Amino acid sequence: MNLPMMPSVRGLSAVATMGLAVLSAAPAAADDFAVLNGAIVEDYLLPRYETLADAGSALDAALRQDCGAGTLATDPSIAAYHRMADAWMAVQHLRFGPSELFLRADRIQFWPDKRGITGRHLGRLIAEADPAALEPQRFAQGSVAVQGLPALERLFFAPPEGADPAFACDVAVAIGANLKSIAGGMLADWREGPAPYAAVIRSAAEGNASYMDAKEASLQFAKALRAALVATTDLKLDRPLGTSAEAVKPRRAESWRSARSLRNIRINIETAEALYEGEGRGGFAALLRRQAAGETVDQDIRAAFAQARSRLDALPDSLQAALDQPDGWQRLDDLRGDLRGLLALLSGPFSQTLDLPLGFNSFDGD
Amino acid sequence: MTIDRRSLLTGAVAAPLALGLSPAWGLGSPRAFVSACGDAAGRFSVKAVAADGRLLSELTLPGRGHAATRRPGHNEVVVVARRPGRFMLAVDPLAGDVIRQVEAAPGRHFYGHAAFSPDGRWLYATENAYEEGRGVVGLYDAAAGYLRVRELPSHGVGPHELALLADGRRLVVANGGIRTHPESGRRKLNLETMRPNLVYVDADSGALLRRLTLPGDLQRLSIRHMAVTADDNVCLALQNEGPRDRLVPLVGRQRGEKPIVLMPGPDDGLRRMRHYAGGAALDDGGSVLAVSAPRGGLVSFWSPQEGRWLGSLEVPDGCGLAAAGGAGRFAVSSGAGRLLIHDAFSGRTETLRDDGRSGLAWDNHLLAV
């Protein structure tokens, strides 16, 4: 296999920073996957979980301060909510290891909530106004639907009718403390303790209870990449958009009350792209380019990401606001088409070139 | 392309096919293969393909399908929704007609598999009573428009594939042991405590006739798929949810009152299967068992009588398997759009269709009709 005469400057630098002196088109080997895994954990995962933990602490502090002064939904609290939501959107797709424990992901964000459980449970919590229900341990072990971002969003943007403002404030503080605790716990489980998950990923190369080999850990990351795009198309776009402009259901969108449905998607796509491209020492893209025919696949994937990104950049943060524009539905439908094309590239050529089975049948077993 | 009933009957499209249509198919070599599929646009359908690879019909499904089963004595196939889906669709795949759509009962969803009684009257479908986390088998009267007449206990959690034994009066059900709830999608909720089993159930009363389990240290080996020989040798395809650094057998067999016998095969084969077998099928004479491992991209062939590994075939994302007529001959379909015929004895492979470029993906299970 001949390499193209002029590899892109970006491609060269990514490969060079991986410390590889020679470009070769050999199939991805166990070592390649081990290097990739290390880079993803250090450069991609840990910084994002640190950001989430910081955002959790900041949210907790903001809510305590504002509710201490007797007001809910002040500008600083709302800004802290958005910061936490931004940070969550950057790790929302990582559903393995520490995020799988103790229902953490559901407790941070119980969504999609097809049966309106958040509204019901939050309404009941507020109506009963029992301070004991907010005791941290009891709160953390109670209904997942009132523990996280969707419940806080309602308190800020659509508070239950007849709510006692003081108790609603206490609920918000309980949510802030809970989110801080969950985010801190996830970061700790990645970095610390007798078996930090970062070490589990690193030792995958020798085989461990979680991974047969380094390649299986890389597959886990590839699945996360795909999962970010699947959740975006299937849950965040398909459900609200429906099959025609007349059939839209904007209230099926994620975070519609805080008018940030498309902002979420923008972060999801940027985060997926960063996982693909790699940060610092290189990601899937660099490995892909070193495979036979990998250059072309890489170019296609990059182009698809760029297309989706540029379409998103022209849209507002709110899905409803986008739908209110002329051709709004059509532009969102086009975005959905871009993402489906990107998914086909991942399940097809990407998966085949790296021999990481993301196929229709191997992705999610039955 | 869809052929309609009229062109079929006038022989304009498929004269040799039409000859076999009445009164029912199922004699000799398969005339067609039926499978659920997905496409690049995220749509789901069920397609029928002739034995030479020509597309005969396609019908849109309300969601992703899983397995299809043929109704004996009728030109009828039932496609079941993949878990946690809530539809079954009875179709005539050769004519391209929908016969009936069936919704899951309240509080139940399907697991993707169903089986007919030998007379074609009763359909048994594995279902999840999800609030209780209990497996059930829904019993449907095909002669009454698939009215759900009652349900039987599956005697386990997460029932998946099931079959009727040769007497037509006993069901054998693979209870995979994995609890899921539609509220949390496809997430596995009880891996620490799962207890898969294989049960024989009275198909009329639902009484438990026999319960078989795996040894205690293999309790995270999920029993999910099966193929049963004419003399009731129940061949099993397994999925390991246990520690990844311990290779465990992924194929087993069980017969009569005997315990489950695991078939380890060579370590290298097991490693290449990557802890996951996704489907099982027997050839026409029941002398070769094929087991697919889509995560490893490997189809393995076994002797169901002796438990011996016979060989393998690499098929990336290959999962669907069906007898293709003749000893050792199988049809294999893949999520990458391939449909091929492989002879496990000669090692010869012939590609019937290759739809990967159009984004077509064959779903987990293939049915020969």
Brief digest:
The complex is a heterodimer of chains A (366) and B (369). In chain A, 63% of the residues lie in helices and 0% in strands. Chain A is mainly α.
Structural description of this entry:
The complex is a heterodimer of chains A (366) and B (369). Chain A is built from 15 helices and no strands. Chain A is mainly α. Chain A has 2 domains: 9-37 and 213-354, no CATH class; 46-199, A middle domain of Talin 1 (Up-down Bundle), CATH 1.20.1420.20. In chain A, helix 11 packs antiparallel against helix 13 (294-313). Chain A is globular, with a radius of gyration of 22 Å. Chain B has a 4-stranded antiparallel β-sheet with strand order 3-2-1-28, with no helix packed on it. Chain B has a 4-stranded antiparallel β-sheet with strand order 4-5-6-7, with no helix packed on it. Chain B has 3 helices and 28 strands. Chain B has 2 domains: 64-213, 7 Propeller (Methylamine Dehydrogenase, Chain H), CATH 2.130.10.10; 226-240 and 252-369, Methylamine Dehydrogenase, Chain H (7 Propeller), CATH 2.130.10. Chain B has 369 residues and is mostly beta strands.
Biggest interface pair, residues each? Answer: A-B, 26 and 40 residues
Residue stretches of chain A low in confidence (pLDDT < 50, at least 5 long) are 1-25
Secondary-structure content class of chain A: mainly alpha
DSSP strand (E) fraction of chain A?
under 5%
| Secondary-structure element pattern of chain A, one letter each | HHHHHHHHHHHHHHH
Termini separation of chain A comes to 38 Å
Radius of gyration of chain A, Cα only, in angstroms? 22 Å
The shape of chain A, in one word, is globular
Order of strands across the main sheet of chain B: 3-2-1-28
Please summarize the sheet with the most strands of chain A. none
Indicate how many domains the architecture of chain A comprises: 2
In CATH terms, what is the architecture of the largest domain in chain B? 7 Propeller
* Total number of beta strands of chain B: 28
Number of helices of chain A: 15
Write down the overall mean pLDDT of chain A.
Answer: 91
